[in-house]
Input
Amino acid sequence: LGIVALLFSIVGIDLATYHQLTKQNLIYKVSVKEVSPNQFEFVLQPGAQEEGSRKVFKLEGDQWQIDFRLIRFSVTSTLAGLENLYQPSRLTNRYESIEDEQEKPKQYYSLRDPIVESLDLWKFIKSYYVYFPGIDSAFGSSVFAPLKDKAEYEILIGYAGVVVKATNE
Output
């Protein structure tokens, strides 16, 4: 009976791990509207767990890109209930061709909270994460997708990092 209980405990722990490692949380909903040729209105709507209000930006080019700062916890810390931490960093425009990328205007918008703009704990943790038990790594991650009229996207975070997916055709 003890062996059966041990086996069920191991299976239960394994299933709990699998569930936590595949869980994805919505960070943002994105919508794009073309206002003139190659000029777009880019709307960033925080997900349910994000604080803040809807933000509207003007972008031009072929693609949009959002950079994030991530702190990823070890599997053991994740099992203990800690979830990866992230901080939106910036929004930029992109061009598909290298020539356009070099010659056409770039747009940069900070997504960091102005209150903590001068405080940079992430850089400190990134440099010394080996001294923080339970932290697996601190790194940057970006997602990008096409700037197309009426395009809609979701930006999600999970154990593996940040991903973007289209929600319409």
Remarks:
- The first strand starts at residue 25 and ends at 36.
